[in-house]
Amino acid sequence: MAATVEKKYKFLRSHLIYFNISREDHTIFEWEPQNSNRSYILELNYIWKNVIEDVFFHIERNNEKFVYIKRDNLIFTISSANRIQFQTLEAFIEQIIDNFKETYDIEVIFSFDVSSNYFKSFNNNVEDLLINFYTLGVVKKVDILCKVCGKLLPLVIKTKIIDESKNFPVPIVYRHDGHAIICFIDKNFVLRGVKPVVVSG
Amino acid sequence: MNSNIIEKLHFINISTEEFSIFDWKPPGIFKSNVLDLNIVKENMATDIFFHIYKGNEKIVHIRKDNLIYTIGTSTEVQFQILEALLEKVHEEFHEIYDIKTIFSHSNVSTAIFKNFANNVDEIVSKLNELNLIQKVDVYCTVCQKTLPLFIKKSIMKSATSFPVPIVYNHQGHAIVCYIDQNFIVRGVELVNTTG
Lengths: 201, 195
Prior knowledge:
The complex is a heterodimer of chains A (201) and B (195). Chain A has 201 residues and is an alpha+beta fold.
């Protein structure tokens, strides 16, 4: 593993807090770093009630963030420390979804009454994906100057967003330190413009 | 829009770099916000509104003319309403007090700002009549609902090009709404966010 990839892997590995795959309102697979025994049932209960098919949702909660998506009746949830950007988490979930579907024929499996132990060995796949994540080319880093901070910041973008977009440049909102900028990225991942943006909500 | 905003407001504070000079709280609220204000003071950028989410509370702050204005509310109140409120508070505060002259004297007691609470009470109670905010309806394709988006009118005065993009962050996702100078929605799209 190249040194930079290994460094990125270690950073991601040390900041990931939790990963969960659920079906409606029960967990079928859970991954946590070693020695972590925290329960996320309250967060999952909220997520299970507030999910719409095929849209990524973000939650920020104290020092951690959650990203979740419902796809093919399964709900994939990931949590990390604040330093990992949402786009990285989305890209990681997408890799997990592909890998999970390749490994298990969900429709057939759920036509039987299966125990969640059935998916226990998927833990190895998650670990492998973590190790290889930065070699897959699913995220790209673009440097942007935020005029508010007066600093050059790394913006992580899922390559899929750009590859699948029909219109260019693609707007991406980067929220950080209590404010937001809107970055316009062209199909070659070149920054075409950046400006502070008004936020409500 | 904000008929009961007073029930949702937690505090309004005006500080110098060193200490609080004015603190307003709705009746019956005695919570100290000193930790939040310490965080706010660390931010040195001027003339830019900053937003902080904190559990069931949201905080907006801005540093203007060497003073720091901070407001805290429950999460239902949109950020743009809070920004408009702070702008009005700043405007009135500067109209009433000649800050430079006041602070050029030593041993200024913050008691001289105490009466400003009446002005804040009035701003809060008459927010609807002040015509600071415009409501527009935007359709979110994710929620599949028409949602009210509040926009402070001062945005249009300071905008250099139109339509103005406004990011509406809600329920874990965001849409970008393009608003023209007549507050007509020219487009809405789901936007990718990071941070």
